[in-house]
Amino acid sequence: MPGDVDPKPPVRGVLEPRVHTAFDGIPYFDAELQVPQSQAHRVAVHELGTILEAIAVEEGLDFLSDEPIWYLHPETDEQKVYYGDCVVGRSQDRRRITAESLLLVVEVVSTEDRRKELKDTKFQPLLNEYNSVPEFALAFPEPHDPRALTWYQLDEGHYQHHELGPGARIHSRSVPGLEFCVLPREAWQAGRKLEVRFKGEVRHPLKRERQRAEQEKARAEQEKARAEQEKARAEQEKARAEQEKARAEQEKTRADALAAKLRALGIDPSSPE
Length: 273
Description:
- Helices cover 35% and strands 21% of the residues.
- The chain contains three helices and twelve strands.
- The longest helix has 59 residues, at 206-264.
- The N and C termini lie far apart (123 Å).
- Mean pLDDT is 85; it is low at 25-31.
């Protein structure tokens, strides 16, 4: 309404880099709600995770997946441990990591249980906004779900969010060069609705990256074999040339010796007669 003033960012407590001890448990199992992951959820977390981890390594950043991170609770301001599916952050002692070092959190939404879906879609954005995580995303892995990606970016202490449908794309502000693209609807599969690009190049999950690496290795070996064949041919040509040179020198030596004998007999070898 006219005259309304945007609310100021909340005054938060101070996160302490305490040593983490909560490393036990089953990955992607919600112990609070007793909800396991779906197949689509598993695929999305694994494939997005391997891509983001590779990018993080290239950029000197940290990648975490279902590992404890200190947050301040948005209602109580209490320091508590929460976990993220795919998290990229500035390099920090992982034993004491806090939300202050995070750059991007991607939460893969579990839609098979309504309680878990509400926790992912309502509480997680609030939690990350309260802790000033620059970018947060919700990925919807089930192919029958019309939603694909919701992207949140921090603007003056509050999240602005964008719903991305088929064919849409968005560039990360916190990880320069990182881009998420939503695949066409007909290409959606369980856990595979997004394409990740980095510095203009499509990045693939670990299996496909390994296949690409193996193909590159095979090509390199073929080039090496071709180069070795060329080198062997060049060496053969060099040896043949040296043999021809040696033969020519032998012929010249014989001709010189014969000419000397003829001259000793009083015969001019250069005479036409």
